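Provenance and format

Records in this collection were gathered into a single text stream. Each protein contributes a sequence line and a C-alpha cell line. The two records reproduced below are adjacent in the stream.
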Amino acid sequence: MRAPIAMAPTGIFEKSSESVEDPDRPDGRRDQLAPFLKWAGGKRSLLTELMQFVPRSIDVYHEPFVGGGALFFELARQQRFKKARLADRNEELIRCYAAIKRDHRQVLAALAGHRYDESAYYRVRELDPADLTDAVSAARTIYLNRCGFNGLYRVNASGRFNVPFGHYVNPRLVNPRRIELVSAALQNTELIVADFEQAVAGVTTDDFVYCDPPYVPVSATSKFTSYASAGFTQADQERLGRLLRRLREEKVRVLLSNSDCPVTRKLYRGLRPRAVGVRRSINSDGAKRGLVSELMVRSFNYSC
C-alpha cells in the first residue's frame, strides 16, 4: 500500500508518488475487469508502458506488492498467464481479495448495508476487522476506500485505519459487475500476506515478477500516502535491490517501478532503469500536480 528512508514516528510509509486512481473513472471500461479499489500509486496510467516489458509467455505471474493490482487485472483480462501469486504486507487488503475470491455475493450483500454518510463512515472506521467475518471485513475495506479522503489507505502505529472522511458528489460505493469479474479472475490465484522475499520464493525462469514497492519519497512532505504500520525502510529498499540482482543472475524476469530520484538511481545502477512520466493527482500545492518521473527497472535485457 504503502517513512521509507527514515521511519516516521508513526511507522507509516509512502506507497506512491502521490497519485490515486479511481477504478470507476469515466474511461468506458466500468464493466470490464480492472481494479475495484482506488489506490495511491495505482498503475493504470502506466499500463501501456508496463505492457511493453511483459513477456508473451508466463507460467506464474507474481506480484509481491499487489496494492490495487492494475497490472494483474490487465494481464488476467488478456489471459497472459496460467496462474498467479499475489502478496502484500497489508493483511486487510489480502483478506479483502480473498473474501471476494471465495464468495463475492456475500461481500456485495455486506456492502449493500453501507451508505455515503460522514457519521456512518466514522462508525465503520472504528470497527475492528478482527471482530468481523471475512465478507463484512472486505465490505468495510471497500467502503472506507470509496468514502475516505482520496481513497488513501493509512494506518497509525497501532495498525488502525485513520484516514478521514472524503467529500464527494454522488460517489459510487460498489460496481457489482466489476466485483463479479474480479472474483472470477482470482480463482486461479494464490493470495498471501508476506514479505516480498517470501512472496517470490520458488520463482522460476518461466515466471514473471512485477514489483511495485513503497516508493522512495522524493520530498519531505510526500509520506502522507503511507498505508502500513510496519514501515518500509532504506534497508528494505536495498534488500529489494539485492533481490532484483539475484533474480537477474538466476535468469528470472522481473520488472520493478519506483520513484525517480538520486537514491533509486544509485539503488538500480547497472539495471537499465528507464524514466517514464506519470500524472500526479494528489498534492496540496496545485502547481506541483502534473507529470512526474518514475523509474522502471528490469532484470532482463532481452525482448519480450
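Adjacent record:
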Amino acid sequence: MSSFPIDETSYDPRIYGPIYGLMAEFDSAQELLDAAHKTHEAGYRKIDAYSPFPVEGLAEAIGFHSNRVALVVLLGGLLGGISAYALQYWVAVITYPTNIGGRPYHSWPSFIIVTFELTILFGGLSAAIGMLVLNKLPMPYHPVFNVPEFAKATENKFFLLVESADPKFDISGTRSFLSELAPRMIAEVPS
C-alpha cells in the first residue's frame, strides 16, 4: 500500500490516482457528532461517518433522514397479499370450481389465512432484500479501506468522510474546512 501526501499541494492524481474524498479522524463520539453537524451546516451533502458503535443523532447530523425500507416492506406485503388472494380466487372460482358443502365458490373467509401468511412472508423477504439493496450490500470493497488508519474504526476511533463527488468539494478548501474541526488527522482516500 502506498503512502499519500500530507498536504494538498503535493497531491498528484497522476501518481496517486483519483481521490474518493477526504477523511478526518476524531477521538470521541461527541467530536464526531459536532463535526458532522458543522460539515452538514457548511453545505456538504455527500458525507459519511464511521464509528465503532452506534452514535445517537449521527445519522441526522449527516443529513440521513429518509428510510425507504418501510415503503419496500409495504409494497412487498401488498404484493404478497394480493397475489395470494388472486391465486386462491382464480383456482376456486375460475379454474377448478368445486361445490363443497353448498358454500359459494368465492368464499373469502377461507382465503384469509393464506392471504395473511403470504403477506407476512413477502413483507419479511422484501425487508431483508430491500435492506441489502438500499445499503448497497454486499460491498466487498470500499475506498475507505485504502487508508491504513481506518482499521481503528472498529476499535476506538471515529471518522468523517467528505466525498469528492460532493458539489462543494474542493481538495484545498475542504481540507482547510476539516482542519478547522480539530481532527486528529486528515487523510486522502484514493479510489
